[in-house]
Design a protein that fits this description.
Number of strands: 23
CATH topology of one domain: Methylamine Dehydrogenase, Chain H
Structural class: mainly beta
């Protein structure tokens, strides 16, 4: 099968240190990277070449673990091992530090914006998830601290159409949170992985959630809650992908090019694999799993 992807350019993003994460801006014109050198680098195109446009180096004292663009693309949030989250605002041809969010006791592992841009979530090795509210004056206020996990929280992600938040943890579990009387609470805990859950991804409809783990599996969870939004949240595992990787699966993402499946039926492994891409420890980049389809169809 012909490869769908080819190398365009290799970026020496963070010389002499590890590059921890990269994130495209919403319009795809900028790329943000972060690393062990405590900096964030903003990349853009000049002709056919990608070059470093800005280096944000005054925000953090330790490794920057994650960066996330706001839905409007005018703000960038960075999470660091120094237990803080920095908010950067686009200004002229660069970025300026807008504010520093403090409160976590240990490393901040992930940061994520809600689709509305009015809420921000952070998680940490201190086992907590924080929800921050953003007002029109660019003021950030912590509205909730949730301690539903018993171990390090690795990842947070927002539902694409509802104000629901999901988190993944070293305790092998996934928590899904919903606001109730101005307070965020864990409404359902998804159990099934046998080791650390590293990453989560909702499909475009929000009806399915993919999780990946140190147990070398990917699980697909389906929203079985009532359509009217009343009652308890209910999510069930409808598919487990195993046997494809021999090492930890660190990241998982639904394909945005083809969209989400809308059929009200449980998908086969073949259908799921066409929609997903994985990042594994032994891989240098995302890669499509199509080459495994023939093998999967037989099962």
């Amino acid at each position: 099968m012909k490869e769908a992807l080819s190398l365009v350019q290799r970026l020496s993003a963070h010389p002499d240190s590890r590059c921890w994460f990269v994130s495209w801006s919403p319009n795809g014109t900028l790329l943000a990277s972060c690393g062990g050198d405590k900096t964030i680098r903003i990349w853009g195109q000049e002709g056919d070449t990608w070059v470093c446009k800005s280096v944000l180096e005054d925000g953090h004292q330790r490794t920057v673990r994650k960066v996330a663009w706001s839905p409007c693309g005018n703000y960038l949030a960075s999470a660091s091992f120094d237990a803080t989250t920095c908010i950067w605002k686009k200004k002229d041809n660069g970025f300026e530090s807008l504010t520093v969010l403090e409160g976590h006791e240990n490393e901040v592992k992930c940061v994520a914006w809600a689709p509305s841009g009015n809420l921000l979530a952070t998680c940490s090795r201190d086992k907590s998830v924080w929800v921050w509210e953003v007002d029109e004056e660019d003021e950030y206020e912590c509205v909730t601290v949730v301690n539903s996990h018993t171990q390090d929280v690795k990842h947070v992600v927002w539902h694409p159409t509802q104000e629901l938040l999901a988190s993944a943890s070293y305790d092998n579990n996934i928590c899904i949170y919903k606001e109730d009387d101005d307070d965020w609470e864990c409404r359902v805990t998804l159990e099934g992985h046998t080791s650390t859950v590293w990453s989560l991804s909702f499909d475009a409809t929000g009806k399915r959630l993919a999780s990946c783990s140190d147990d070398r599996t990917v699980k697909i969870w389906k929203d079985c809650s009532s359509e009217d939004g009343q009652g308890d949240l209910s999510w069930k595992c409808v598919c487990t992908l195993s046997g494809y990787h021999g090492r930890t699966i660190y990241d998982v993402s639904w394909c945005r090019l083809t969209g989400a499946w809308l059929q009200p039926v449980v998908m086969t492994h073949y259908e799921y694999l066409k929609k997903m891409k994985l990042q594994i420890q032994s891989s240098l980049c995302f890669r499509w799993l199509l080459k495994w389809l023939k093998r999967t169809i037989k099962t």
